[in-house]
């Protein structure tokens, strides 16, 4: 089965946004967005919510893409982020 999950960077790229543009739109620091896209664990749900809103996607869909990058099994964990 092919994994069709989008990465956080793919959500941004699909909307032709730069890191700086999305960070400004989400009202977060650029380095914070860079960390999210790099898969740094333990990003707050508040940050994920801001990014999702700025992208115009549901928080759950965006959080699932983030969790899919950070979970060793590639499966989202309901314990990590309750969006």
Proportion of beta-strand residues:
under 5%
Q: Give the SSE string.
A: HHHHH
Helix content: 55-70%
Q: What is the name of the CATH superfamily?
A: lambda repressor-like DNA-binding domains
CATH fold name: 434 Repressor (Amino-terminal Domain)
Mean pLDDT: 80
CA gyration radius, whole angstroms = 12 Å
Query: Architecture, according to CATH?
Result: Orthogonal Bundle
User: What best-fitting shape do the alpha-carbon axes yield?
Assistant: globular
Distance between the first and last residues' Cα: 26 Å
Number of helices: 5
Number of strands: 0
Q: Which sheet architecture does the biggest sheet show?
A: none
**Spans of 5+ residues with little confidence (pLDDT < 50)?**
72-83
CATH top level label: Mainly Alpha
Number of domains: 1
Structural class: mainly alpha
Q: What would your notes on this structure say?
A:
57% of the residues lie in helices and 0% in strands. The chain is mainly α and 83 residues long. The chain has a single domain, classed as 434 Repressor (Amino-terminal Domain). Helix 2 packs across helix 3 and helix 2 packs across helix 4. It is globular, with a radius of gyration of 12 Å. The protein starts with 7 loop residues before the first helix and ends in a 13-residue tail after the last helix. The relative contact order is 0.18.
